[in-house]
Structures are given as structure tokens and as C-alpha cells.
Amino acid sequence: MLFNSLQFLVFFMVVTLSYYQLTRQKTRILLLLVAGCYFYMTFVPWYILILGGMIVIDFLAALQIGRSRGYTRRAWLTASIAANVGLLVVFKYAHFLHLPFPYLILPIGLSFHTFQAMSYTIEVYRGRQEPEQDFSVYALYVLFYPQLVAGPIERPQHLLPQLREYREYRWDNVKEGLARMFWGFFKKVVIADRLGMAVDYSYDHLHTQGSLHLFTSALLYSFQIYADFSGYCDIGIGAARVMGIGLMENFDEPYTAGSIASFWTRWHISLSTWFRDYVYIPLGGKHQRKRNVMITFLLSGLWHGANWTFVLWGGLHGLLALLGRKRIGMILTFLATTFLWVFFRARGIRQAGAYLAGIFSFRSGAPGYGLNPVELGLSFVLIAIMLFREHRWKSHFIRSDTRFALFAGSMTLVCYYLGVFNENQFIYFQF
Question: Which candidate in 113, 268, 304, 317 is catalytic?
Fold first, then answer.
């Protein structure tokens, strides 16, 4: 079930209306658990058994960590981490590592919910989080549908208390959440999926495209992936806010960053802080900084996909983060990330190399972006609207009920008339 589908809209309305009809928090938790299971099973039904098994393992491991001392605590933590990492290896990295496992379809969102589960047991081990005694609450921590398959990757200290607490109906929460969802739908179906047609055309016709077309499509992909992923997060954060639950922000105007290091404090914040807290700092942080930065970025690249393109993408980001600690300016940083996105988008190293070579060959080629000139011009206008209004929607559009109604109505019309409704999967679902 994709967020950009009619099925999800019906699902969201049924779950939300049922949620506020229930007067006991325990019943609400059970409702959201059933909703999370159903949401996950709409992709590959039997994979819920794998996710359920991991929930049981991590729940029991955390209880044992809380009760044990010394070596035993460390052993339970190791067992929990090994189970989660082992799951990733079998389903995601077996072919990449040439391990003798049969090819298996990657469970959707596996990298996200395994990292969220590991953050729980690690925080319990560090003494920053009490082991959750209620299995249903912990299960919901993993199965909460607004952020189940593509984040944000939450921390237990932030999400668990909210899941336990009974939330009264508040119109301000509903208004804010719905406005955020409208904004996310706009970014996904109007901007991301429209730009995706132009980007796909350039990669499919790589050897006939001129340098200017390839460069323009690379720029468009920078905005496509931002609109796609941040749009998903907007919808998920909004759906949670309607129920009075706050999820962490995952983006902070990343393309205004003045350096690569600053970019990674603004892009996919929940993942970058996860690697900071659970990889970079435990490795020693600023002690042997260069080594630790490169290890962290290489692992971040590998987290995104079992392909050398992602490893190279992460490694180059790490190298630029080390070389460019000082501000190099917003435009240069944006151009650097744009060229690196080529490795992220390409199917392999060879295609990425051919794409970049095509840009810097300064060749002419067949015209066309897969969009007509009006659609292409409209795309740039929509990008400008998105960037200009990105952090102004909350203060401006929900200040009054009248403004909210106008915003909701205009977004509905824009999505209806300008949206691309082919239910394209969100880019980060593949991770």
C-alpha cells in the first residue's frame, strides 16, 4: 500500500476515525497494531512473520539486558544486534557478498525497522531507556504505520512515551497533520513523479542525449529525490500528527547547506544521527577522525543498497566532508551533491561513469526530456514553489481555519489536475 494511492487514503480515514472513537489507550494500541500489520502485509504478506519474529527477539533481549549485569548484558545486546544485522545480510547483502543463500525478495523497509529496533536495545544497554514491559507497546514502536517502511528512524525515548499516552482529540493537531499530508502529496505526485519521467528518459536514452540535457536531468533528479523522500516523510509525519503523535523531522532545507558536512546535518537527519550515535562516536569520534568519518560514510552508502554505486556514493561524500570542512557555498555544495546523485540513481558503476562522461564531453544530442516544453517549464515553477514554501506552510497555511481550507482546496485541485497518478513507489522504499 503506497501513500500515493486511493487505498491508503481510505485506510487512513478508517484508522483515524476508529482511533478517536476508542476511549481506552490499550484498545487504541491494538487498533494501531492491526493497522500496522495490515499496512505491511499489503506488500508481501508472509514477511510479517519475519518482522514479528524480530520484534519478539528484540523485546525479550531488552528485558534480559535490563535484568542482567556485566558480560551477560553484553551478550544479550550482541545477540539482538546479530539477529538484526543477520537479517539484513541474508535478505539484502547475500548476493553482494557472494554468500551461498538463495535470492530472496527484500522485505520492504527492512533497513529502516532493523535500525529502529537496534536503537532500542542499544539505548536499553546504555541505560538511557528502561526496557518496555508491555509487548504491545514495543510492537507498535516498530509497526507504527506512518513511519514503518521509510522512516523517520525514531528513538525509543521519543516515540515510546507518546505511544503509551492517551491523546485527546484536538482540531489543531488534525489541521496541522492534514496540511502536512497535503504538502507531502503535492511534492510526490505533482513534483517528484513528474520529474521522474524526465530523469528516466535521460537514463534510458543516455547515449543519444546531449551534455546540456544530461546535466539538466541530473539537476532534476536532485529535486526529484528530495521531493519524493521528504514528501513521504511529510505524509507520515502528518498522519501521525493527526493522532496527536509527533515524529522527528527528517529534513531541514538540505540544499541550502554551505558544505557537504552541513548537508548531512540536514538530509535524512534520523539516519545521519543514527550513524553518528551508534557508529561514529563508538569508533572514537574525533579521535582518528578521518578513519571514523570514512567508515561511517561507507557504511551509510552500503545501508542504502547492495551495490558498488552506493558504496562509492557514500565514500565520495565522506571524502568531500573531510576535504571541505569549511563552507564552500550553497551553489558549489548543491552541484557536488547533484553530481554524486548520479551514482545513487545509476544502475551500476558503468552507467554512472557514462552519464558523467556524457555531461563533461560537452556534446550535442537529440533534444527531449520525455516532457514537452510546457511540462518542463511547469516543473521548474513547481520546484521553485516547493523550495520557497517548504518551511512556511505551517505558520502561513494553518494560521486560521479559513487559510487551512483554502490551502487544502488548492492543493487538492493542483494534485488532481497536475498530479501523475501511476502510483510510483517511493524511491527510499527499496532500502
Answer: 304
